[in-house]
Amino acid sequence: xxxxxxxxxxxxxxxxxxxxxxxxxxxxxxxxxxxxxxxxxxxxxxxxxxxxxxxxxxxxxxxxxxxxxxxxxxxxxxxxxxxxxxxxxxxxxxxxxxxxxxxxxxxxxxxxxxxxxxxxxxxxxxxxxxxxxxxxxxxxxxxxxxxxxxxxxxxxxxxxxxxxxxxxxxxxxxxxxxxxxxxxxxxxxxxxxxxxxxxxxxxxxxxxxxxxxxxxxxxxxxxxxxxxxxxxxxxxxxxxxxxxxxxxxxxxxxxxxxxxxxxxxxxxxxxxxxxxxxxxxxxxxxxxxxxxxxxxxxxxxxxxxxxxxxxxxxxxxxxxxxxxxxxxxxxxxxxxxxxxxxxxxxxxxxxxxxxxxxxxxxxxxxxxxxxxxxxxxxxxxxxxxxxxxxxxxxxxxxxxxxxxxxxxxxxxxxxxxxxxxxxxxxxxxxxxxxxxxxxxxxxxxxxxxxxxxxxxxxxxxxxxxxxxxxxxxxxxxxxxxxxxxxxxxxxxxxxxxxxxxxxxxxxxxxxxxxxxxxxxxxxxxxxxxxxxxxxxxxxxxxxxxxxxxxxxxxxxxxxxxxxxxxxxxxxxxxxxxxxxxxxxxxxxxxxxxxxxxxxxxxxxxxxxxxxxxxxxxxxxxxxxxxxxxxxxxxxxxxxxxxxxxxxxxxxxxxxxxxxxxxxxxxxxxxxxxxxxxxxxxxxxxxxxxxxxxxxxxxxxxxxxxxxxxxxxxxxxxxxxxxxxxxxxxxxxxxxxxxxxxxxxxxxxxxxxxxxxxxxxxxxxxx
Length: 766
Fold this sequence. Notes:
The protein folds into four domains: 5-273, 5'-nuclease (Rossmann fold), CATH 3.40.50.1010; 281-485, Ribonuclease H-like superfamily/Ribonuclease H (Nucleotidyltransferase, domain 5), CATH 3.30.420; 488-629, Taq DNA Polymerase, Chain T, domain 4; 635-765, DNA polymerase, domain 1, CATH 1.10.150. 50% of the residues lie in helices and 11% in strands. The strands form seven sheets. Strands 5-4-1-6-7-8 form a six-stranded mixed β-sheet. Strands 9-12-11-10-13-14 form a six-stranded mixed β-sheet, sandwiched between helices.
């Protein structure tokens, strides 16, 4: 006959009662204090009721003596004998060794000691009791899920994370990852020289003796003696008058109700809480799995894809794996780390991924990044079908964020973790447990697929599906190819621009010294602040912080010397930008990363290098290949657009000559020395007066007069723009021809957001 037998590690009960009663004498009988005994029996009988214990044995080892007194333990044992409750008492043996002798016969071990998790088998589960008095039924799969390692690796896990000095302990994730790859502590130290993380290697080296000492204590003793117990005779016979009379005679009246037979269904409740949530996120680790995945993707019309790497720059990133999802709630992760593969090499996986990449239409979130990372590794996505990041940008224009986590929460009401939530600073996915890499990659692919359905419907509802596919998505494919192949850059032309800027900076420095009547090191913050304080008497505007270009621009209004300093600083900034471009040139080419949504108005931006960050140097685009020249900011082209749209006769007449210079603004007494085209565009866009005053270093009164005169001269232009803004606010979008642009802030009740959205709208227009 089969019995469900429980082994109770009583250490956690002794510890709880000792800290709970603190020696209070609440139950005394014939001069004997039985308060501690009462507490022990109460907790033991509660466990019986909660877990349905009818057959079991209480285990008391040397661990109990470290949490309470010998006297309390002896009184408790005496009462257990009187109640005829089965127990084993081995004061010279660890509770781990005692419970280990019962593994083959017991059904459950109840404990609060993580060391005992290593005893879990297919037929014997651990019931873990936490400080909250809750129970967690932990079969092998639950231990793998919650801790991250198999039961046999618990001694290594605890040695690395729980014991010893904090300075040498590893994080749980670091320990799990090492165990995944190298096994037990011996295996980890055998491969110490292979670790990429210097921090982990340093901790393991300095803490070696401590780790091995703890590891030895965490393991079952090879010399543990056997403990003869008849497991067919461990029934808890408590529903009788003898036990009830014993409790009454000691004043334990409240415990009598706990003698009733336990509810057998309670254990099933706790077991269900401990079950692994069924998941369809799986790692593909062998050739059979790869073949199945390839067949699945080939038979699907679309597939979401996501790459897991260690760098935002696709040109520098190391590829750890690729995730795929063809059905909501299901995803597969294919690692490229050979330690995680079974019978496969990285070359085998890449060969399979090459075929998969051509098998169907792919969806991604910022799929240009995935495209470039894969292309770098010889894997070319055959068909880019959809980009959820760009689709959200098309639909909601001026949202603050378009990352996957934000969109998942806002559009799907589903919370996911971002890369930064999982991978801490100075870590990569290689430092984390493999299951976290699998979970993260699969979840990203799954969420991307879900967003696809939501955003596809939104594009259709707003009537911009064709625009999205033919313009926005088409551009990202084009930019991906440009990034991969690089952009030709003429270094000679770039050097000429730099030389010209250096000459301007030198002349400006000379003019500053002439006007100030003294020389100082302008590029030194200390000397610059001294000059502003002592020579220009601007001490009240100068604090201990760095004098930024922005703060200097504010001081420059009506201060000619400071204006010259600002112009010098601007030239220096432009020189640095030119230098940053030159520094990235490889064989006459640069390999930037383009961004289609960093600028809410739709202007293309780039990083490493920043090609479009230099305003006022139109000749820079002539240094670059023809494929991207159109994307450089061009104020004259923007004014041409305004002329065509508004049909302002005065604007057309004033812009004469090959350079289309504005004669009205040049001859105007307040605007002659300013950047006329940039000034006019800034006012048309609707920048705040403070920003205009700072940018052009003019006082508010002068700015007010300039705005008045420009509105008078170009009344048709400003009337058209005012009408354009009014329609935009009413409709929630702007449109030119068949191209429509949505800005979420246009419908906002927040005045600041609405004003910002209107600025974006006009900037997009021009």
